[in-house]
């Protein structure tokens, strides 16, 4: 279909296709006294005299045209940078959702595919495609429902859709968003996305349509929305402020993360108990082997744990993790035959450790390595902000205790506490 040019006052706009001209006539932006021209015409002609659009003017209600004329905004093809800033604003608005969804799914994938690198890579690829689909779906829904997105409203960008009902409009916008990610962003693959961005920028600078726009000049400039700016700009600043606060909160954990080198790992409940050596739950270069002198069984524990190698005792072991501020006391006791009263033993044990910790909970059952243990939580008697946790495993007249004292309760400390218990209790008889 021929490309049309039209006038708005002293300025000329175009080229646009016939459908856009009809939309401009319907909305009152092109009146009977404005001029039209395309390559098959010898001269400019008033829109009201053009037979191609006679039916569009005939469908207008009497008097409605004059009501829509003033004030008259300029409809011009949107330039590259305006379109870029509008899209970046929309991505910033969606980034918290991407962070939450991506983090949770990635952690779940790591837990499921731990130790299976091909499976983890496949899960990461599927997650990436899901996020791309989400990044395409959310703007498509917004434009299908409201005709715009927050970023496009603020920067005055309008994407024309040749449909009226919701589902055809949604399919149009959803397909266009996918084309933007492929032809304009190279699916975010560096450095390919830089090349595709420069390619589309050059096309738009010479008044060509972008590769992902099927209709020429279907992305137009409207008057920016001041109301949207008043609402959305503070929201974006709030999101940026929250991100800065989160970075400040976790800055103290950077040194710990670097020395620990651990990613989120499976919970200790999922590790089989009957293995001689507990599976490595942290990267190989961050672990070392510890052999339980009493049972002769080995375990892989993080290198951050220090323990006395020259301790001749086979019943008590002290471990310290200076980078996390954690201390662990592991001990073995004989509690008699299988008929010993566990309740009486736990009460007596609680009394014996009252100089170290003050319980804040009752004894409760939990599982480590697939077997039941008893656990009580509390605070250290020396510091109210220091957490203490006592775990007991009883079997066949033997009791293994693990008392872990932790200043605070960060995510890294919680992860390492579970890793340590899983490893240690994997070596007991």
Automatic annotation (TrEMBL):
Protein's UniProt keywords contain Transmembrane: yes
Membrane-spanning segments: 88-113, 119-146, 180-201, 227-247
A matching Pfam family: RDD
Signal peptide (residue range): none
InterPro entries per record: GYF_2, RDD
Record flagged with keyword Calcium: no
Domain GYF: 4-48
Membrane topology value: Multi-pass membrane protein
Residue runs in coiled coils: none
Domain RDD: from-to ranges: 78-199
Keyword tags: Membrane, Transmembrane, Transmembrane helix
Locations listed in the record: Membrane
UniProt-recorded name of the protein: RDD family protein
Organism: Agrobacterium cavarae
């Amino acid at each position: 279909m021929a490309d049309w040019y039209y006038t708005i006052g002293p300025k000329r706009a175009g080229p646009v296709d016939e459908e856009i001209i009809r939309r401009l006539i319907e909305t009152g932006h092109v009146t009977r006294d404005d001029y039209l021209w395309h390559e098959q015409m010898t001269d400019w002609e008033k829109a009201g005299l053009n037979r191609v659009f006679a039916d569009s003017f005939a469908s207008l209600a009497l008097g409605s045209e004059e009501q829509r004329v003033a004030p008259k905004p300029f409809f011009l093809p949107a330039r590259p940078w305006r379109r870029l800033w509008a899209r970046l604003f929309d991505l910033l608005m969606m980034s918290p959702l991407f962070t939450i969804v991506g983090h949770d799914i990635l952690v779940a994938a790591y837990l499921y595919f731990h130790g299976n690198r091909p499976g983890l890579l496949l899960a990461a690829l599927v997650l990436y495609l899901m996020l791309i689909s989400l990044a395409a779906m959310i703007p498509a829904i917004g434009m299908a429902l409201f005709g715009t997105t927050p970023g496009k409203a603020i920067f005055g960008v309008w994407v024309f859709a040749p449909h009226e009902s919701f589902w055809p409009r949604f399919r149009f916008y959803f397909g266009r968003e996918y084309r933007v990610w492929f032809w304009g962003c190279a699916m975010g693959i560096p450095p390919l996305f830089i090349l595709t961005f420069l390619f589309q920028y050059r096309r738009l600078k010479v008044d060509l349509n972008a590769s992902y726009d099927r209709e020429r000049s279907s992305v137009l400039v409207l008057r920016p929305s001041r109301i949207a700016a008043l609402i959305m700009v503070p929201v974006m600043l709030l999101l940026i402020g929250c991100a800065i606060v989160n970075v400040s909160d976790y800055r103290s954990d950077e040194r710990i993360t670097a020395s620990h080198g651990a990613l989120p790992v499976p919970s200790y409940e999922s590790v089989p108990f009957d293995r001689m050596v507990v599976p490595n739950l942290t990267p190989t270069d961050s672990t070392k082997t510890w052999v339980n002198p009493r049972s002769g069984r080995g375990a892989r524990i993080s290198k951050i744990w220090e323990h006395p190698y020259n301790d001749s005792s086979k019943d008590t072991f002290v471990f310290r993790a200076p980078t996390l501020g954690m201390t662990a006391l592991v001990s073995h006791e004989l509690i008699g035959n299988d008929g010993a009263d566990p309740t009486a033993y736990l009460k007596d044990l609680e009394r014996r450790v009252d100089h170290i910790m003050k319980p804040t909970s009752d004894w409760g059952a939990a599982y480590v390595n697939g077997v039941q243990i008893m656990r009580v939580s509390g605070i250290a008697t020396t510091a109210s902000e220091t957490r203490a946790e006592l775990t007991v495993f009883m079997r066949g007249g033997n009791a293994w205790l693990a008392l872990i004292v932790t200043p605070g309760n960060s995510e890294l400390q919680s992860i390492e506490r579970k890793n340590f218990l899983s490893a240690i209790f994997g070596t007991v008889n």
